[in-house]
Amino acid sequence: MKKTNYLLGVLTIISALTFSACSDSDDDGNNVEVVNGKTDDGTFTRSTLTGVVKNNDGSVLSGVTIKNGTQSTTTDANGVFSFDEVKKVNGRIVLQLSKSGYIDIVRTTTETDEAFLQITMLNEYENTTNSTFNTGSTSKLSLTDWSDFSTSMAVELPENYKVASNGASYSGEVNAKMTYLDPDEENFGTSMPGSDLAAVRTDGSDAQLVSYGMVKVELTGSNGEQLQLADGETATVTFSIPSTLADNTPATIPLWSFNEETGLWEEEGEATLKNGVYVGEVKHFSWWNLDCPYTRANLNITVKNSNGKVLPYIKVDVDGQRTLYTKSDGTCSCYIPAGVDFDITIHSEDYGNYTPEIKETVNAVSAGTNKDVEIVLPAISTISGKVTNKGSGSKIVSIFMSYNNKYTDKVISDIFGKYSITAPYGYTGPATIYAKTADGQTVSKKIEITDKDQTVNFEIDSESSAASGGSIVVTDKNGDKCTFTLKDIELSLSNGVSIMDTLLSVTAIYMDADPTSFSREMLTLTIRNYNKSVSKYSGAELVYMVEGNSTGFTEVWAEKADVSISVSGDKYTFKVANSPCDFRGQGVEYSEDAEYNVTAEICAPLNVIAHSVENAKQSDKLFPSFMPYISGESFKALVIDKCGFLSSGGCAYYQNTSLTKTDYDNLVAAATKSLGKAVETDEPEENTDWDNTYSSYFFKDGKLIGITYDPDYQPNGYQYYDTDLIDTDGIITVFAFEGFTLDYTLLFDDEMYYSKKRMLKARK
Questions:
Q1: What's residue 237's pLDDT?
Q2: Hey, is 101 helix, strand or coil?
Q3: Distance between CA atoms of residues 421 and 395, nearest Å
Q4: Rounded to whole angstroms, how far apart are CA atoms 636 and 550?
Q5: Mind spelling out the 3-state secondary structure of 436-502?
């Protein structure tokens, strides 16, 4: 299937027309102040503790639960969390993070003044190795290094186990799951437990570690109970040697288990070098760490530019094993192993993509001493400012810029809304700066990047974000219930509330397409006679599906549900009253005679509002000025009224079947003249008779054009993206978006297209 067909589906199904960061887009200048040449002289102050949580591909994670003592919070749409007060254990702040589908992690810090953490949570489907076996037999978990086909980590499990909660002997099926952290990996410093490699030796003395790798094994029984090795049993762990530490291979290295209460590593055994790997035995499972222990020294870092200006909130990499952020005064500090040479690096991508990248080598430091290091970076202009919020939500926003068809990395403002972002190194010219709020809205302003600092202040109207996507409850005729808890419905390419004319649709799709751990969760709720002045509806359609290697297939389908709607700002809550439904899954086969009812509560953000226009003409001027047209032809139009990822735009559907590829080629030529060479093209594959579509896409300076020609189009015929609600398809489709802020390459996603196609079939 052609990748570009997915984009066409996104543009033509209102239930699929959902994009990230939807709000009133590029404003009229009233909400953003730009003062060229002036540096914000305010003091940047963070809350007691602020952080951002990302997954291992760099995307932010919302809906992560973070606990500190008895208090708890969740990350917002920017992946951000904050605590005004924190509990310490022996001088250390201990945070416990969890999110469905990700590996739980405990992070610690001793910093309280302006503390900021970046934490990486690993997707459990991509970063775990699994095995299922029965007690009385052994099993082995291993991970292959595909660069040389060697084994990077292995765990050999014994025969006997006990229930962790009460110590009772366990007999039956054992499910084992292994996670390995490699010190050679880029995210090692932000994804490991603890974060600072602080440790306690068997004699009670403090130690600072250098890690050769970490492993976690989780054991569960057939009913989900947590298991541990039986008394007297041991497991064998085998660590490969990281390439970054290949020149330091002592005969033995201690093993350390992680104490999740204190956030410290505790010495417990050792591993021996055998045939180029380290082999040891453990008596229980938590996180285990293979580390050389050292006495401690203190490292104090100051980061400035060549003009002597201190640089706040710069990411600092200490030897690939610790990640720090400078405070408002440009300083950061940490413990380091004494007697060991190490490197301090400011990576290019963390400071405006500057070049050449600066790496400072620090010679071994004596135990108990302080080492002061000053890093001097090239002078790059900054854009700074503050955010004020008219709503009840947070002032913490994600700030990023687009320039020359590129995007900067995001920075996070402090709890008071103050931020500072580095301009792209070596670039001057037009740019757009964006502020994305905690509830997913985005405001933006065009600026001119020069060699001088600027101040850009934002005014937002953001409410507190919902903490949950809701739930779906199916009840059978005997009163037995089956409850499905929905993930947070986050603003994204496919998720959210879409409104076109009188059609309202909620869509949420979550996928892991890895064939070894395939899982997919999909939801649609459709109201066909929507009127914003009406809060209750009958005859709504609800479809919910879950499928995967471990979950099998489950489907809930209510064709005529009763729904009530409440709206707060751009947040919608849908309550489905007790309504008849079809149900199958979890061992339940579909039957027309079965009796099931469904109730649901669904919380989702608004993504887009649009309206259709019949028999539109070029002279109607419905679209941006760079929109190409077929001269003299009328078309069906889809005009976007509100959406945060663009300032204006829509789609034209030409349904005259006498149009030919020549008309398509002429449109492509016009788009090329406006925006330059196409960034994506697609043509029919040879020897295929089921997809003869041509597509071309263009992008420049936030302007996006897409053109598709489908010679097999038949008016009112079935299309992959047909909704049976409005005939928004044609032999030639053209769209134009202005002020487009998404990464357009994300639009060409085969897996998402297949999922939407399957959802539409289910809805039919």
A1: 96
A2: coil
A3: 16
A4: 44
A5: ECCCCCEEEEEEEECCCCEEEEEEECCCCCCCCCEEEEEEECCCCEEEEECCCCCCCCCCEEEEECC
Q: Which two tokens stand for residue 572?
A: 């919608």
Q: Residue 261 contacts by C-beta under 8 Å, 6 or more apart in sequence?
A: 89, 94
Block residue for tokens 């005969």: 251
pLDDT along the chain (764 residues), means of 10: 36 30 32 37 52 83 87 86 77 87 86 73 82 92 75 92 94 93 87 89 92 94 93 95 91 94 92 95 94 94 94 89 86 91 92 93 92 95 89 79 88 80 93 86 91 93 64 81 77 80 89 57 91 93 77 80 91 92 65 80 88 94 96 94 84 93 97 94 74 88 92 65 44 92 65 42 39
> Three-state SS for 6?
helix
Beta-bridge partner residues of 485: 471
Say how far apart CA 403 and CA 423 lie, in whole Å.
10
Q: Cis peptide leading into 624, omega within 30 of 0?
A: no
Q: What backbone phi and psi angles, to 5 degrees, belong to 658?
A: -85, -5
Taking the domains of the chain in order of start, what are their residue ranges? 4-21+610-749, 128-294
CA 4/CA 694 separation, integer angstroms? 9
Name the fold adopted by 128-294: Chondroitinase Ac; Chain A, domain 3 (2.60.220)
Quote the CA–CA distance of 94 and 117 in Å, as a whole number.
12
Would you mind telling me the total number of residues written for the chain in this entry? 764
Those residues whose C-beta lies under 8 Å from the C-beta of residue 718, and which sit 6 or more positions away, are none
User: Contact, 176 vs 154, CB < 8 A?
Assistant: no
Q: What are phi and psi of 339, to 5 degrees?
A: 80, 15
SS (H, E, C) 145-201: ECCCCEEEEEEEECCCEEECCCCCEECCEEEEEEEEECCCCCCHHHHCCECCCEEEC
